[in-house]
Amino acid sequence: MSSGGHLRIERRRLDLRAMVPSIYEFPDIFRRVHKEQPYEIGEEVRFLRKVWERHAPQPVQRVLDLACGNSPHGQILARGGIEVAGIDRSATMIAAGQRESRGLKNIRFYRRPIERFKIPARGFDAAIFMSETFPVMTANAAIVSHLESVAAALRRGGLYVIDIDRHGEPRVARARKLWRERTLNVCGAKVAVRAHSRPAPWYSGIHSIFDLECEIEFSDRTVKTRDLIPVRYTVPATLELLARASGKFTMVAAYADLSFEIAMENCERRWWGVLRRL
Ligand SMILES: C[S@@+](CC[C@H](N)C(=O)[O-])C[C@H]1O[C@@H](n2cnc3c(N)ncnc32)[C@H](O)[C@@H]1O
User: Which CATH number is 36-167+234-277's, of 3.40.710.10, 3.40.50.150, 3.30.565.10, 3.40.50.300?
Assistant: First the structure.
């Protein structure tokens, strides 16, 4: 659907990006704002390796990291000898990834939008999309062209693992209203976080719009960030249908909370969809 609602939200996101910095320009801070801990990256990489062992037709040696940010997962994989290519639109995040991986010859970054992209490298064994960002693509056309772009870089049989939040009931708001507020200390900076709910058109398929304002007090300056992130309501059946719609993937498994044992109905926090390139 390319409804007026989607277009207005997209335009507003672009306007905001042009005016004020995004919290995603601060790799060390955004994870804590999202209530994630750095050790979770290692846990995710360990489970990724198990998923590959279970489903990949051959050992995974080359990986594409979508919306990679500074590619914390890619950096661990690259240190373990895997070749990694990261895709992200943020120059700041990419610069952070390049700084942190200086000296590693097997990780590189491409500044591209995830919705539709091309890179010179091809034949990747696997792709990953971590940190619950996939549902920011809200329009069917954007998701399908994203899947086509990933498929063009993957070899046949290659796996695409996508990490998605467990979406409870849609967060319905009649007007913009404060949802959560807290203050954190991260790497010597004081971060005041205010998250708001916003109304979304009922027909948009949007679970919630994450309207996030942060004030970061560094020792020498204060920065205010603003992000407006629509989150599409996404469950395993949605991903399966989108994979089919792309004509490039089939969904082979879905796992809850980094486990092969936890049933989807008991999923508490997030789930992974495992797609295979046709
Ligand atoms: C929550 S961060 C996750 C980064 C990384 N995967 C991680 O686990 O740390 C989300 C990233 O998605 C990127 N992003 C969001 N929308 C994007 C888009 N439309 N095209 C390219 N990158 C995008 C942001 O720049 C940001 O670096």
Answer: 3.40.50.150
What pTM was computed for the model? Answer: 0.91
- For ligand 1, pick from 14, 44, 131, 150 the residue to mutate: most ligand atoms within 8 Å of CB: 131
- What is the bridge-based pairing of β-strands 107-111 and 206-217? unpaired
Distance in angstroms (rounded) separating the CA atoms of residues 105 and 82? 10
Give the mutation target among 24, 118, 143 for probing the ligand 1 site: most ligand atoms within 8 A of CB: 24
End-to-end CA distance of the chain, in Å? 25
Interval between CA 17 and ligand 1 midpoint (Å): 13
Domain ranges of the chain: 36-167+234-277, 177-230
Q: What is the mean pLDDT of the chain?
A: 91
